[in-house]
Every structure is written in C-alpha cells, then in structure tokens.
Model the fold of this input.
Amino acid sequence: MKCAAYVRTASSEHSESSLSMQVKAIEEYIKNKNWQLCKIYKEENSLGPELNVGLQRAINDAKEEKVDVIISVTASRLFRYYKQATHLQGLCEQQKVDIITLDNCINTFEGKYGLIHSPLSSINSIGFLYDKK
Done:
C-alpha cells in the first residue's frame, strides 16, 4: 500500500516538534501495517486554504494514483476547508484513495467513513468563508 503522510501545524510555536511527533506516529502506523511511506506532506503556519499547498499536492497525487492512502493524525488536519474537504470526499467516493486518521475518526480502508460523508459538519466556518473568495 503506497502511503502519503499529511502533517500540519497552524502556528510556528513548537512547530518542528509537533510536525516531528505527527510524522513519527504515522511512520509507526505504516510500519506496523507493512505498508510503504511514499511521501510526507508538511504544512507549517497553515492558516487559510491558499496556504495548504501540501494538502493540495497530496490530493493531486491521489488523483494521479501515486498514493493509495493519505494518513493524518486527526481529521481536523484534513477537513478544515470546504473545497479541499469536498475533493477528498470525492476521491474516497470514487475509490481513488483511502483516508486514515490515527485518532480512529476515519479509516475508509476498513469502512469507517466518519466525517467524510458529511464534511460540512466538520469544517471551520472561517475556512468556509476563505474558500468562497
């Protein structure tokens, strides 16, 4: 299974340690599954959808079938902005990619869709406004 790790922090304070802890947790999960980590997408100071270029790259790689699964520590890392959330939802529905969060909120590989079937309920309203520009 080709995996992409997506890690994000909204502030620069303690960002390196936060990102490092997220990466380690995802690497451990992938190792335990005997899967392959293909790419790590990192976001630091990711406030606003125009700054979430790493997530957009992960989405594009999933569309191009370069990865089979996108793994993040929590669903809030992935489902913050409407446009990106709907892209991820569409990719899951088309079975182009699986989404796994280590908080066990989402694991489409095992049939646990959580917020994917209703991404609007999990999206930050400020992010939703940003997407409408």
